[in-house]
Structures are given as structure tokens and as C-alpha cells.
Amino acid sequence: MGKLTKHMPEREKVLPEYISLLDWYGDWISKQPPPGAANYDDDPLIRLIGSGKHIWADEHADEYVENLRREDI
Fold first, then answer.
1. What's the CA gap between 57 and 54, in Å, rounded?
2. pTM flag (> 0.70)
């Protein structure tokens, strides 16, 4: 039994109208990769970490934003 499924309520204690939700969750969680199995090289958002840091390398972030606000666009 997975880490998250062990915290699922006992089926007998769930109201009948919520059994389908419990089934959906059990099915969904069984399809999730185990913790730590994520391949971060394939995640486009993770790959963005640190990109653009050269833009404000010589300037404090607050100053950078203030200068952007002053520019006429």
C-alpha cells in the first residue's frame, strides 16, 4: 500500500454517495510515480531555474523592478 493510500478512510466508514470519489482517488494515486521518481530534466519549469539571473546580476531585484516601471514602453 502506498504512502498516500494508507491514509485513505476505511471503505465501510464512507457514506455511499462518496464511494465513487474514494474509488477515483484510489485509481488516481495508483497511477502516480513513486516519490523521488520524477525526472527533473524533462520538466520544462524546473529547467527554467536560474534562467535570466544575469539580467539582474549587478542590480538588486527591487531596483530592477523599479527601473522597469520607469521605462517608457
1. 5
2. no
